[in-house]
Amino acid sequence: MLVKDDLTTSCQLRQTIRDFYRIDEEQVIEHILPLAEVGVTARSRAWERARQMVLNIRKAEDGKGGVDALLNEYSLSSEEGVVLMCLAEALLRVPDRKTQDSLIRDKLSKGEWSQHLGNSDSLFVNASSWGLLVTGKMVNYSDKTKTQQFGVLKRTIGRLGEPVIRSSVHYAMKIMGKQFVMGTNIDEAIERAKDTETKGYVYSYDMLGEGARTMADAQRYYDSYLKAIHALGKAAKGKGPVKSAGISVKLSAIHPRYEFTHSERVKTELVPRLKALALAAKEYDIGFTVDAEEADRLDISLDIIETVFSDPDLGDWQGFGLAVQAYQKRAIFVIEWLEALARRVGRKMMVRLVKGAYWDTEIKTTQVDGLDDFPVFTRKATTDVCYKACAIKLMAARDVIFPQFATHNAYTVATILELAKDNNQGYEFQRLHGMGESLYDQVVLNDKVQCRVYAPVGQHEDLLAYLVRRLLENGANSSFVNAIVDDTKPVEELLPDPVEKLQDLRNKRNMNITMPIAIYGEERDNSKGMDLTDINQLMPLKENLDAWVKDNIKSANAAQAELVAVLNPANHSELVGHLKYHSAEDMQYIVSRAESAFADWSKTPITERANLLRRTADILERHRDELIAICIKEAGKLTQDSIDEVREAVDFCRYYAARAEELAQDERMEPRGPILCISPWNFPLAIFLGQVAASANAFSLGTSSVLTRSLWVNS
Ligand SMILES: Cc1cc2nc3c(=O)[nH]c(=O)nc-3n(C[C@H](O)[C@H](O)[C@H](O)COP(=O)(O)OP(=O)(O)OC[C@H]3O[C@@H](n4cnc5c(N)ncnc54)[C@H](O)[C@@H]3O)c2cc1C
């Protein structure tokens, strides 16, 4: 009976997690804000502790000025910072030197590098500014000489300059890579860790590589995890998962189709792989953590984790863990679900609480995909509040969960230390290699709480995604690590209390972050997308598609002999409709209809025509599921491609409505006459409608093509 109750709770929590995926932000805040409230006294104690820590960090870091100072000087709010970021990212990806040189030439010529000279106390920063200034100037110089064909000597300097610039930028990238990466292989990393371990730190290694595109890639990453587990296991000498170095695994690295839409394949192929790695870690009794990745992977990751964690083969091993991102609106329920899972299975679990490293991506993809709302909070203070609420829950569940608090924010650390009160047992902190050293030197020494260092290991070519996340984190001015190296910022400014801040805000949602529907501003609404990783959206869509198929798809045997049968290209036994080729007379009739309609249409006021296009867009959206079904059955498209096709058609209508009104101001524009549109087979709806909408916009007529197409779909 007890087991059944636990299962019911788990199922309900999973449903709540789904309901909160992209819920209105205010509703989550209403739920989590009271959970994060600990009272004014505890808050001010944490604040004072954090203030002291910040002062100590500044003292310890004074004059060091490494990569963090460079990233501070070239933060992402400056144009030069963005240029550097683009360069860093792109140079890791561009394989050939010629393109690398063009890229450097293009990027470095843009910045105002001289403005940064002398801004920082750090020699490293100034030397870099100087280097960038010189190379930027050199690029401009050589460009000028080329266009003006001016002097062999100058041209030579220009040409000589490029390889030099390329090498120095690569060298700078290498320095950054070294800052964030522990070693090129696991043995090198274990060796390099020894010094830090003597100070009371432990490690969790991350074998670089994620987002495998092929099975071969996935196998390579899997092998490197397994090799690392054996190496770490031997070095652990049975110290157990808390005291020995462990491993962090990205599910996207060990399967190329780790996606919600491939759930079945993931269950049969990825689950056994994860279990095999977990069992290897269990053999040596070391820690094994599944990293958290993009929000659209969360639901499927919980299925995978539940299956592997519940497996009796894991015995009484307490090293299995996962990361939870507090910036996700559903984080608090994920924590509750994990606690319920650990209690149900009867085995302790490790839970690493992070704020989340994919914030920019989550915001941007939600906007581009036209989804209802974001899966993450839009204010940093809300993420901090949620982190605190989750931390309180984790601390209270220490009998079944070993909490691991991963943060570089002194206030967050101080808050956790206050939450732990006198019981500094049964949890640890975590930091990334190359970050947060001075903060945790204090915690390990004074508070005697263990800190684990997350240390990436791997080759230059696998570094890109990780490096970009670190550069974003270090370069963002909302980030604690960015603010702390800026001496001009008073300590107090670094430590706003998130609970107080959020309570005081009238608009809890950040109005500066444009909602997906509004990304085109006043001009037009963005077309509505659909999240196929959201079961709450997926189930009604499936019902509608099934109903459409039941009503419209016939057996191929029912094809009418006098017409051309349109069969589902993926299943020739399904008859989608019929096609009739026009005779010469039909065409003449159609053209004459178009010509006679043209006279009226060309006199129709532009606003009326534009509104007609807008209405068309709205009607398309209302009939979205039906159109998706047609795209799937008639054109053999995947569901996501079909959604995109309908969206594109909607966008075309709204876009050309806006253009038509804009062009109407131009007196030179005049009606051009009927236009024939031919739809390509692979975009039967979007490009066809795009052509028609564009021709209607060009003050002419697309009626003839509408007729041609409608025969196909509706017969
Ligand atoms: C050991 C370790 C392991 C990690 N593993 C993972 C992992 O598996 N998955 C993962 O995603 N990340 C992981 N991270 C990265 C982690 O998410 C970031 O380092 C972390 O978010 C930075 O938080 P902070 O407390 O150090 O800094 P802070 O400066 O206090 O917080 C910065 C964070 O606040 C959030 N934020 C910023 N602006 C906004 C905004 N406008 N609205 C809402 N939220 C905002 C973002 O999450 C941002 O990263 C890990 C970090 C560590 C230290």
Quote the distance from N terminus to C terminus. 58 Å
Number of helices: 29
Tertiary shape: globular
Please count the beta strands (DSSP E, at least 2 residues each): 11
- The chain-level structural class is alpha/beta
Measured as a percent range, the helix fraction is 55-70%
Ions, cofactors and other bound molecules? flavin-adenine dinucleotide
State Rg.
Answer: 30 Å
The largest sheet is: 8 strands, parallel, barrel
Overall pLDDT score: 85
Strand order of the largest sheet: 1-2-3-4-5-6-7-8
Beta fraction of the residues? 5-15%
Give the low-pLDDT segments: 141-160, 699-715
Describe this structure in words.
By secondary structure, the chain is of the alpha/beta class. It has helices at 2-19, 25-35, 40-61, 67-73, 79-93, 97-108, 123-148, 152-180, 186-198, 215-236, 251-254, 263-284, 298-310, 331-345, 359-368, 380-396, 410-420, 437-447, 464-475, 480-484, 491-494, 498-504, 535-552, 584-603, 606-622, 624-635, 639-663, 686-697, 703-714; strands at 201-207, 246-249, 288-290, 320-325, 349-354, 401-406, 428-432, 451-457, 554-555, 564-568, 571-579. The strands form 2 sheets. Strands 1-2-3-4-5-6-7-8 form an 8-stranded parallel beta barrel, surrounded by 6 helices. A 3-stranded antiparallel sheet has the order 9-11-10. The two termini are 58 Å apart. Flavin-adenine dinucleotide (FAD) binds next to strand 4, strand 5, helix 16 and strand 7.
